[in-house]
Design brief:
about 75% helix
Length: about 190
């Protein structure tokens, strides 16, 4: 449809913060509506047409990620404070679509999550959004898969810790990765505290 492209263009345009906030809130409403539709009805994935429709929605939702990262870096707190929860909603919506579309874990990683990881890592090293997004992705992707796909992630995080404005976010990201790596490698029945 034509609604989403209009919303996305308004999210990144040079309008007053109150108008950009309205655009970001409209994007959140669009994602909420999509999520409600996906949860409320039994999505029929038996037909090729249904699977293709889900894959189109998947591509549309993936296309939102770069816009969200731009919103996250917006100088106005009025606008950028919404980005974290909206990024979480984007990941939730992607997960729902992936479950319905019955896409293999390998294709999920190569087609979807690695794209979202790349979008996050394209953010400047001095922006917390880069590290917060990666932290939010760890539970979805799995720490081992993330480290495997981004072999220099720890090196990059440790290097960025020297920047005072992002050191706390880097530390949280490293802790999340390490905690998840330990849990993923723990024997069955072992619970980490």
């Amino acid at each position: 449809g034509f609604v989403l492209p209009g919303i996305l263009s308004r999210c990144t345009s040079s309008q007053p913060p109150s108008l950009q906030l309205f655009a970001v809130q409209s994007l959140e409403s669009w994602l909420n509506s999509l999520e409600v539709v996906l949860k409320s009805r039994d999505v029929d994935v038996k037909t090729e047409k249904s699977v293709e429709r889900l894959k189109i929605e998947l591509d549309r939702v993936i296309g939102i990620a770069p816009v969200l990262m731009t919103v996250w870096r917006h100088p106005s707190k009025l606008v950028n404070h919404v980005a974290s929860s909206l990024f979480q909603r984007l990941c939730d919506t992607l997960s729902i679509i992936l479950a319905h579309a019955q896409i293999s874990p390998e294709e999920q990683m190569s087609r979807v999550w690695s794209t979202i990881i790349q979008v996050a890592l394209r953010q400047p090293i001095e922006h917390r959004s880069r590290y917060h997004a990666i932290t939010l992705l760890v539970p979805r992707v799995g720490a081992a898969a993330l480290v495997e796909s981004q072999t220099r992630i720890f090196e990059q995080l440790l290097s960025a810790m020297r920047l005072k404005e992002v050191s706390s976010s880097c530390c949280s990201c490293i802790a999340s990765l390490l905690r998840s790596l330990v849990c993923e490698q723990a024997p069955v029945g072992f619970k980490s505290k």
